[in-house]
TrEMBL record:
<dbReference type="InterPro" id="IPR006311">
    <property type="entry name" value="TAT_signal"/>
</dbReference>
<dbReference type="InterPro" id="IPR017850">
    <property type="entry name" value="Alkaline_phosphatase_core_sf"/>
</dbReference>
<protein>
    <recommendedName>
        <fullName>Tat (Twin-arginine translocation) pathway signal sequence</fullName>
    </recommendedName>
</protein>
<dbReference type="Pfam" id="PF07394">
    <property type="entry name" value="DUF1501"/>
</dbReference>
<dbReference type="InterPro" id="IPR010869">
    <property type="entry name" value="DUF1501"/>
</dbReference>
<feature type="signal peptide">
    <location>
        <begin position="1"/>
        <end position="36"/>
    </location>
</feature>
<keyword id="KW-0732">Signal</keyword>
């Protein structure tokens, strides 16, 4: 039985017999023993990850790797100083500039994947797409190897992104991320249906237990046990006091405004609530970075959303004492061409050879940069970092051994960073 068929079977059965939908819980995993933390080279200081996915290919030149002395490359965008000595970013990110003392900019990202689907796949899974296998996403790896911190709510949540990017791959559905389309709608289908009273609900549970026991007496298979676990998790979630973590309406209106009244801003606020309640890995997606046409207008509009949300998230986590154990990753699948395409209303094309990402909190050495591109942003000049190495670095921050091998159903060994070493120099 494949993953989609299993999910459909469990969901329909739960609706019929229990009056609930357990689909949101399919992103979870039973709490598993976490690896012993190591503090060597900054490892293990993070308990949580907030992964901000800039889908579409964010221009490095117009954000974190400006080239102020090359107007033919930089165009009309000016660079500005930041709270980190010696680090400049562009004028589109004034609020982010104020919190760069908490962050490390990696300006030497490089990839061979120049198409969106393949680039996003590599960013999330560390491996190239293959027709014969579905690799687990980074959040699924964290769920499996790190285990849940809070056993009552999902360990991996994806906000505003494609469910494909939150796939458990060959780990199975129970390690997938819970996909939330809108941060203001909470976790749907996680309460008992109003048409089903508590007495009726308990009666149905007892009936289901009887049916399950009879079935298990006849058939013994690990997949059958998985169904039982999912039922138990769904019931535990419904009764958990931490279900309120998904309700951003419990936040002050002023703070909601500070994050920005848009899906990404509110998604960042929800991400903070979720890590506060023990969710290990939260991804929030901001799309719209595919700026083949009219790059400068489009990037400015995207940056207005990103700038306010990112800066508020960093400040909010810091003020609550959460930044030290929460790694905030801002990443994209590739950059945009340093060449400005005049015939496309000053657009920029796909450019995987060189681009940027940013890491903050979770043991990262703030106010620093790592790697660099040449004077035109065309090539990585020093300390190249591939997406798989970025993922190994995230695992290192969490104290997950990057050489831990997990075998696929066909027996092939895989690691969280595709056998890459973490960038340990960026840790404090």
């Amino acid at each position: 039985m494949n993953e989609i068929t299993r999910r459909r079977f469990i969901t329909n059965a739960a609706k019929s017999y229990l009056g609930v939908t357990v689909l949101p819980m399919l992103g979870s995993t039973i709490a598993s023993p976490a690896f012993a933390k190591s503090t060597a080279n900054g490892a293990g200081k993070a308990d949580h990850v907030i992964f901000l996915n800039m889908a579409g290919g964010m221009s490095h030149i117009d954000t974190f790797d400006p080239k102020p002395n090359k107007k033919e490359i930089q165009g009309p965008v000016e660079s500005i100083a930041t709270a980190a000595d010696g680090i400049q970013i562009t004028q589109y990110l004034p609020e982010t500039a104020k919190v760069m003392n908490h962050a490390c900019v990696i300006n030497s990202m490089t990839s061979k994947q120049g198409a969106h689907e393949q680039g996003q796949y590599m960013l999330h899974r560390s491996y190239a797409m293959r027709g014969t296998i579905s690799h687990p996403s980074l959040g699924a790896w964290v769920n499996k190897l790190k285990g849940r911190k809070n056993p009552d709510i999902p360990g991996f949540v994806s906000i505003g992104g494609s469910p494909d990017q939150a796939s458990g791959g060959f780990f199975g559905a129970r390690y997938s991320g819970v996909p939330l389309g809108r941060p203001d709608q909470g976790l749907k289908n996680s309460t008992r249906a109003h048409t089903c009273s508590e007495d009726d609900f308990n009666r149905r549970l007892a009936l289901a237990d009887t049916l399950n026991k009879n079935f298990h007496d006849q058939f013994s298979h690990p997949t059958i046990k998985e169904y039982d676990n999912l039922y138990e998790e769904a019931i535990r979630l419904m009764q958990s006091k931490d279900l309120k973590a998904f309700d951003i309406n419990k936040e002050p209106e002023t703070l909601k405004n500070d994050y920005g009244k848009n899906h990404f801003g509110q998604g960042c606020l929800l991400a903070r609530r979720l890590v506060e309640h023990g969710v290990r890995f939260v991804e929030v997606t901001l799309g719209g970075w595919d700026t083949h046409y009219d790059n400068f207008t489009s990037v400015e509009a995207r940056c207005q959303i990103l700038d306010i949300a990112y800066a508020t998230l960093i400040k909010d986590l810091h003020s609550r004492g959460l930044l030290q154990n929460t790694l905030v990753v801002l990443a994209t699948e590739f950059g945009r061409s340093p060449e400005i395409v005049a015939e496309h209303q000053n657009g920029r094309d796909h450019y995987p050879a060189a681009y940027s990402c940013v890491l903050a909190g979770g043991g990262i050495k703030g106010g620093t940069s790592y790697g660099r591109t040449d004077s035109k942003g065309l090539r990585v000049k020093d300390k190249p970092v591939e997406p798989k190495q970025l993922n190994a670095t995230i695992a290192h921050a969490l104290g997950i051994p990057t050489n831990e091998k997990i075998h696929s159903p066909s027996g092939r060994p895989f690691t969280i960073g595709n056998n890459s070493s973490p960038v340990v120099e960026i840790f404090a």
